[in-house]
Amino acid sequence: MTHLPEQPASITYPEDLPVVARREEIARAISQHQTVIICGETGSGKTTQLPKICLELGHGAGKQGTGHLIGHTQPRRIAARTVAARIATELNSPLGQLVGYKVRFSDQTHPGTCIKLMTDGILLAETQQDPLLRAYHTLIIDEAHERSLNIDFLLGYLKQLLPRRPDLKLIITSATIDARRFSAHFNDAPVIEVSGRLFPVEILYRPFDDPAESEDRDLSGHSVRWMDAVYMGRAIC
Ligand SMILES: Nc1ncnc2c1ncn2[C@@H]1O[C@H](COP(=O)(O)OP(=O)(O)O)[C@@H](O)[C@H]1O
Ligand SMILES: [Mg+2]
């Protein structure tokens, strides 16, 4: 008998993320609409928190192997792995159990996996064997603003798939505010805009004729030494 990973008793969220602040509104939109576009700056919590909101809504918890998965795509392999690891940590679950990932040459999922990270190329390839994407209950197409060939193919494929899979939920995320174009593509799907986290920015200048300049011919070494000086409070402003 396959031992299935345990669902977390309760899902916790980092308090200070804009996506978390709008969690109820996002959950309501996902429940009421087949497609939702979430738009927010980098660091607002789209990638790490949206799958948890879906999990809390009961997505990903259906009968194993029959369209229960929350599929979450990333443009790059390294992101698929690191995002999976981060979400697994936040859910207190070992990687490859409740949260797994699949990239080329490596499938770290489990029969009981609920959240599956993958590259958008992997999801596109899966349409060959599973044209209706029946393995999935929910799909999160992350970083859609990157508009790679894979993402554009997927968005085109999903548009014609949605009427044939009325039970499939689709969430598109974008870090830019051109989300209206995604909305128009998906029959005016609702757009939720979350503001990013704002950090104070201070502009510091080095003297033009700094003698240290001549020692720091390479840009990276120069930047590191300068950041070190700022950190140690030795910066000349
Ligand atoms: N691997 C990680 N390790 C530590 N903190 C992380 C990691 N991934 C994300 N975070 C934290 O979660 C916050 C939200 O990140 P994320 O969900 O990736 O936002 P978005 O997708 O909107 O850019 C980040 O600002 C960061 O503080
Ligand atoms: Mg992200």
Describe this structure as you would to a colleague.
- The longest helix is centred in the middle third of the chain and has 14 residues.
- Helix 5 crosses helix 6.
- An 8-stranded mixed β-sheet has the order 4-3-5-2-6-7-1-8, sandwiched between helices.
- By secondary structure, it is of the alpha/beta class.
- 36% of the residues lie in helices and 17% in strands.
- The protein contains 9 helices and 8 strands.
- The chain is globular, with a radius of gyration of 21 Å.
- It binds adenosine-5'-diphosphate and magnesium ion.
- The site of adenosine-5'-diphosphate has 12 residues, from helix 3 and helix 4.
- The site of adenosine-5'-diphosphate (ADP) has 12 residues, from helix 3 and helix 4.
Throw out a few tags for this protein:
237 residues, alpha/beta, eight-stranded mixed β-sheet, 36% helix, binds adenosine-5'-diphosphate, binds magnesium ion
Count of β-strands:
8
- Please work out how many helical segments DSSP would assign: 9
- What is the chain-wise order of helices and strands? HHEHEHEEEHEHEHEHH
Distance from first to last alpha carbon: 66 Å
Low-pLDDT runs: none
Profile the largest sheet.
Answer: 8 strands, mixed
Helical proportion?
A: 25-40%
Q: Structural class, judged by helices and strands? A: alpha/beta
Bound molecules: adenosine-5'-diphosphate, magnesium ion
Write down the Rg: 21 Å
Which overall shape is indicated by the principal axes computed on the Cα atoms? globular
Mean pLDDT: 87
Beta strand % = 15-25%
Query: Biggest sheet, strands in spatial order?
Result: 4-3-5-2-6-7-1-8
